[in-house]
Amino acid sequence: MPLLGAKHYDPTGGAAVSKDCSALTAMAAIDTTNLRITFTAPANGIVLVRLRGTIHGATTFPMILLGVLDGSTVKGRQVPMGALKTTAVATAQLTQEALFTVSGLTPGNSYTYDAAYAVEVLKASTGIKYGGPDNSTTNDAMGGFVFEIWDTPNILKAIHYDPAGSVSKATDTLQALTALDTTNLRASFTTPAGCTNVLVRLRCPINGATTMPGILLGVLDGSTIKGRQSPIGGVLGTAVATTNIAHEASFIVPVTASTSYTWDAAWGVEIVLASTAIRYGGPNTNVTANDAWGGFTYEVWAV
User: Which is the most buried residue in 70, 115, 149, 227, by most CB within 10 A?
Assistant: First the structure.
């Protein structure tokens, strides 16, 4: 995939930078000078965004969203995936990564995006941190914050569904694989000539209890299972009810070249847990705790 723009910002001239996570906040730009990318939209009008940073500072951790802003407009946001310990020392450095598509861009137009974050569940004395001196002093450097924008010439369908009203899909009842949303999480695509496999990627968070249910994420063609997987993601220690745990499934599905398909993103529940759910969407115009989870990611790639 061609790279359209990248920042790996790692200031070494002084103390590490800290973006405060001790107060609730809607999506806000992290650094409009050093973590801003201007790029030209590719021919298909779809880009892949990757952000990676580190949370640090307390024995438990805030719940954040990572995303991008075009001015004041949220173009994409996601519960990040990565290290998550609910009990740790204050010196633990927990890497968090968001990876999602932004579609509907006008090919050939120039855009300027800012890396951004929001705090959904606050935690005192914590921050997203990066930079710091290159020395032999303990716990004073966090390395760079990563912000990348990629072209997506092989993508067949890109969905990052993030409605203003939050959605919950219960995980407290056993369930066979079931379509999540046949309108907004349905992928219709045509395989190119010579394509005999596609890669499916799905990502969403679960929250609601102090432990996690066992789910499957997959895709359905009508009632036919085209692929399903126990997703990667989890938590070390005992969570609280507001802990957001990102779950991702990624797998190959054989296909026939030059053929049209319609597949639904789906979930199944293998181990139930009361009061838990897959969640996505929610407002970005308030500072209410634990009411937004960013987008549900659903992608189909030719491979």
Answer: 115
133 C-beta neighbours (distance < 10 Å), count: 14
pTM for this model (two decimals): 0.95
What are the φ and ψ backbone dihedral angles of 243, each rounded to 5 degrees? -70, 125
Q: What is the pLDDT of residue 59?
A: 76
Please name the residues in contact with 122: beta carbons below 8 A apart, sequence gap of 6 or more: 21, 22, 23, 24, 62, 289
pLDDT of the residue at 91: 73
Contact 170, 262 (CB under 8 A): no
Burial class (CB in 10 A: 0-12, 13-18, 19+), 175: middle
- Separation CA 107–CA 104 (nearest Å): 9
**Stretch(es) of the chain classified as CATH 2.60.120:** 3-151, 155-302
For residue 35 the two structure tokens come to 């973590």
Contact 166, 291 (CB under 8 A): yes
Checking 30-36 for CB contacts under 8 A at 24+ apart, the result is 30/114, 30/115, 30/116, 30/117, 30/128, 30/145, 31/114, 31/115, 32/114, 34/7, 34/9, 35/7, 35/9, 35/114, 35/115, 35/145, 35/147, 36/7, 36/112, 36/113, 36/114, 36/115
Rounded Cα distance, 73 and 96, in Å: 23
| Terminal Cα distance for the chain, rounded | 12
Is domain 155-302 annotated with CATH 1.10.10?
no
Give the residues of the chain that fall short of pLDDT 50.
none
User: Are the CB atoms for 116 and 68 separated by under 8 Å?
Assistant: yes
CA separation, residue 24 to residues 64, 83, 93, 257, 284 (Å): 9, 21, 21, 48, 11
For position 79, what pLDDT does the model report? 95
Query: Which CATH architecture best describes the domain 3-151?
Result: Sandwich (2.60)
Point out which residues pair with 37 in neighbouring strands: 113
